């Protein structure tokens, strides 16, 4: 490796939360191993965080302390690779990214919001100045899925990527299924156990999954990251009864991020879905993440692992740092950033698929006729249908699954169901993902 | 990407079997996509195979034909990246590798025997001359597991790697389980269906898995590939009765390649094992491959996909070609080749684990006492034990699983069982992998 003899990676780490401290620990613990794998020494020069006095379980006294994170990328800092673990799509994270990449300094980040929102701008800048830009930790924690898509599967035209990308949601859905509990009860418990944030909106409303899915769509299809036009539903409205029916029908409910090539174009969406219990992704339980990629040459590959936490996320950050050390570059978002196409997403009403619909209706003569008439008129063909429950509380459930149809027809059907006198509450609809 | 404007990858492809033809097809089909992902054009200049007249389903007329594969790497060939798909640990594949790497020309191969046997020599040479050396397709087909270990998880001290690495064996074991058939019957059928070779030794005796496991051990632990000292057992002796008992005990039998850090050192071995049915790896069916990696930071990650075939293997080869195009280098075998340690494997008799033992015995008084006495004297502690079957054929089965013990004790136990008058045939032993 004679050509690398004079190389050295000199890190500036911005953000010293769990992941930042984890990165520091790994670099201190595995110094020799990391140098061997990098082909050159990897050292921390400077760190930055909001609160200097906080005990992070690591000794930071050997490193320069910088109050303003952006200063890590200033000329005098001596840093040649910035690791950004601050978070947030704007503010200091964005300022630091622009400063580092503008100066041709490498930038490694775990920040999905930043890449999903400003990824194109940053990649264009990085490719202009020749600065490395890496973000493995932004999606699916410790699973090297960014690398797999950008590099390992680069010889494929990607057909689809489907992922369980948020451990909090999968943990909640798993407990709802196993313990028969309601969403609110599991959420409360998950918050007490530290599996969910005090403000859980970002996770449970699918926003976190949407950021990750937007990044996967860019890598898979060479389109600009487009978080603005990404239809996003979370898991707040998943009821125990739907989990029960899913089980009875041979499915399990998972929050999925999906991006796929269709006849209409590229469809990218985040929503809870019914997946067949025999599918690999259906058997991913608790906080584990999983990604299923279909490519035209490779067929289906599946990746599973911890989606969050100190070790897994720090592992992904280290992978990026070592990539930069080895001199791996190439197009930052899979293809040259200036050639990224507008995302031009297929509206979700054009989605073709099969559906699960649950209605609560009055148990009275003629109900089934009313319902099947609407379905027939909207050209929605029934695959299976069952009626269940006593009418003691004045209503019974009708549950049906459809043959393949277009979502616009399902939406029209649901609208009409809502106006039927016999239908007692807003119908529930879940997409089925094969 | 201004610095890459003058770069171009000019390929010479040696070996035009299924995979070689697959690589040619992908390059022709995805020319623009590949150039975008590579950051530079990728072209085929020359090809080589034994039989020029054979129809391979691709038009090769635009490429130079070279009769002697080694000529692809000669000065006048114009080739700057050789793709070797000939196979075999020596012969033309090795000659071509030495020639290409010696001249500083990149070398991409799907050849597990070559890397498992001569990997160190070739990596040392590549690092001296600066030539890229890549072998993603050598292990687990389309699954980018080499990249994951060498790069994505490079920040981890690897604890263990376990894999289902041979699709033929997993296909046979799956059918034995699902259809209750004997090994020989399934093998015959698999040969007719093209899932097994006419001479299946390489697959079913574990040699193919051993080559792949040797490579994984090198990447995981920085040791020299050492196929010579790798204990290897195949699946020839797996009986339907063991598959039945496995099921009853909550296990499934899989042929595993395992390499793991233990208190004694690094243990690397290939053998059929009982894996708990809830483990991810137990649910990998048919010709699918899977690899489970445990790292000290990332925890457990799992990778699944097609382990062989035109598309998946060509996908892996393309990933390597694009890696070379993007200029990714770094230590060829994960750490600088001159720093690889001798493999110094822990002998399998020192393996600590739990075991499954099946005996056929005379159904007579005192048998259980004889058997439990031996176990007690060899310090093998019983976890579960069951006796099954009628004595109509003069024997019954005794099946037991052990608590954790050292393999030497199990071996001594089995030796002593064999000498017992009541034991009717050589005992069967399978390691249990948690």
Automatic annotation (TrEMBL), chains A, B:
Enzyme class, UniProt record, top EC level: oxidoreductase
Domain ACT: 356-431
Sites where the protein binds L-homoserine: 197
Active site: 212 (proton donor)
SUPFAM superfamilies: ACT-like, Glyceraldehyde-3-phosphate dehydrogenase-like, C-terminal domain, NAD(P)-binding Rossmann-fold domains
InterPro entries from the UniProt entry: ACT-like_dom_sf (IPR045865), ACT_dom (IPR002912), Asp/hSer_DH_NAD-bd (IPR005106), HDH (IPR016204), HDH_cat (IPR001342), HDH_CS (IPR019811), NAD(P)-bd_dom_sf (IPR036291)
A Pfam family this chain is assigned to: NAD_binding_3
UniProt keyword NADP present: yes
GO MF annotation: an example: homoserine dehydrogenase activity
PROSITE patterns per UniProt: ACT, HOMOSER_DHGENASE
Protein name per its UniProtKB record: Homoserine dehydrogenase
Species assigned in the record: Kordiimonas lacus
């Amino acid at each position: 490796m004679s050509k690398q003899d004079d190389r050295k990676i000199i890190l500036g780490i911005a953000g010293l939360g769990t992941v930042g401290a984890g990165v520091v620990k790994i670099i201190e613990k595995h110094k020799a191993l990391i140098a061997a794998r990098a082909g050159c020494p990897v050292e921390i020069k400077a760190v930055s965080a909001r609160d200097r006095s906080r005990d992070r379980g690591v000794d930071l006294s050997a490193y320069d302390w910088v109050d303003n994170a952006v200063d890590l990328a200033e000329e005098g800092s001596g840093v040649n690779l910035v690791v950004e673990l601050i978070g947030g799509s704007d503010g200091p994270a964005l300022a630091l990214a622009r400063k580092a990449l503008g100066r041709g300094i490498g930038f490694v980040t775990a920040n999905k919001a930043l890449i999903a929102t400003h990824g194109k701008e940053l990649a264009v800048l990085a490719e202009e100045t020749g600065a490395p830009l890496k973000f493995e930790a932004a999606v699916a924690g410790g699973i090297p899925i960014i690398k797999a898509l950008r590099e390992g599967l680069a010889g494929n035209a990607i057909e689809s990527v489907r992922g369980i990308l948020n451990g909090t949601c999968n943990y909640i859905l798993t407990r709802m299924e196993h313990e028969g509990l309601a969403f609110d009860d599991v959420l409360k418990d998950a918050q007490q156990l530290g599996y969910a944030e005090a403000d859980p909106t970002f996770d449970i409303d699918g926003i976190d999954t949407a950021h990750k899915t937007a990044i996967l769509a860019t890598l898979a299809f060479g389109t600009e990251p487009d978080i603005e036009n990404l239809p996003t539903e979370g898991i707040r409205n998943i009821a125990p009864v739907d989990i029960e029916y899913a089980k009875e029908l041979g499915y399990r409910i998972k929050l999925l991020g999906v991006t796929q090539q269709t006849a209409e174009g590229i469809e990218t969406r985040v929503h809870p879905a019914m997946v067949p219990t025999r599918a690999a992704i259906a058997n991913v339980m608790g906080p584990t993440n999983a990604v299923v990629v279909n490519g035209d040459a490779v067929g289906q590959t599946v990746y599973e692992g911890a989606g969050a936490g100190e070790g897994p996320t720090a592992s992904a950050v280290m992978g990026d740092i070592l990539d930069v050390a080895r001199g791996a570059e190439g197009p930052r978002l899979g293809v040259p950033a200036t050639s990224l196409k507008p995302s031009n997403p297929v509206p979700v009403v054009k989605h073709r698929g099969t559906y699960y619909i649950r209605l609560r209706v009055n148990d009275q003569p003629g109900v089934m006729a009313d319902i099947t008439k609407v379905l027939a008129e909207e050209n929605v063909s029934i695959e299976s249908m069952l009626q269940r429950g006593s009418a003691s509380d004045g209503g019974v459930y009708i549950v049906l699954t459809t043959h393949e149809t277009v979502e616009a027809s399902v939406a029209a059907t649901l609208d009409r169901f809502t106006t039927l006198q016999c239908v007692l509450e807003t119908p529930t609809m879940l997409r089925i993902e094969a």
